UniProtKB/TrEMBL annotation:
Pfam families: NTP_transf_6. This is Nucleotidyltransferase family protein. It comes from the Bacteria. It comes from Pseudomonas mercuritolerans. PANTHER family: BLL1166 PROTEIN. InterPro entries: NTP_transf_6.
Length: 186
């Protein structure tokens, strides 16, 4: 089974994640994905042959729409999500504006923005289509995620490498998932 199919199966077997995907889908946000730790942790737990760990501290919802690229719009969506599911902390970011915070050229889509995230294994999103099929966005591939490799993206290999290492330490991934391998520079 290929990695994308395996990821779809893992998501489909998790009723909590499926519930979250249905809630987010019903917002009808353009180019919208639930991403980062929502996906990464599930795969790493599976590969460590253990029950899924608790959901990430916040559920990352990324979307892309240049016509609605304000922080206030994101906040409004977070409030709407909290009203639908108050036991989760939501983090909604329209990627059409995030290039400004990150000092990048404008992104062209949500997937484009993911290539600028710190780790390759984090740059993965999932969503449900109108028919309930799970779609996967992995602009940097799924190989590192399924190989248990923590590798910085190109952006974090040089001038932001210290940020990558600080993030790795603060999140304690190597302690939580001991089979992970850190892929260092060079």
């Amino acid at each position: 089974m290929n990695q994308e199919a395996q990821l779809r199966d893992l998501i489909a077997e998790d009723p909590v994640r499926m519930h979250i995907l249905r809630i987010v889908r019903d917002l009808n946000l353009p180019d919208c994905w639930v991403a980062a730790g929502f996906v990464r942790s599930l795969v790493w737990d599976h590969l460590h042959q253990r029950q899924p760990s608790p959901l990430p501290e916040d559920i990352d919802v990324v979307w892309f729409d240049t016509a609605c690229a304000s922080a206030q719009t994101d906040l409004t969506v977070e409030v709407e999500l909290a009203a639908l599911c108050s036991d989760l902390k939501w983090s909604v970011k329209n990627q059409a504006r995030m290039h400004q915070r990150n000092a990048d050229a404008p992104y062209g889509a949500a997937a484009d923005s993911m290539t600028f995230w710190p780790e390759t294994a984090t740059a993965v999103g999932v969503r449900l289509d109108r028919h309930g099929a799970i779609e996967v966005s992995a602009p940097l591939g799924l190989e590192d995620l399924f190989a248990l490799k923590v590798r910085p993206t190109a952006r974090f290999e040089s001038d932001k490498y210290v940020v990558f290492l600080e993030r790795l330490q603060s999140k304690r991934w190597l302690e939580i998932w001991p089979k992970l391998t850190l892929v260092t520079q060079g």
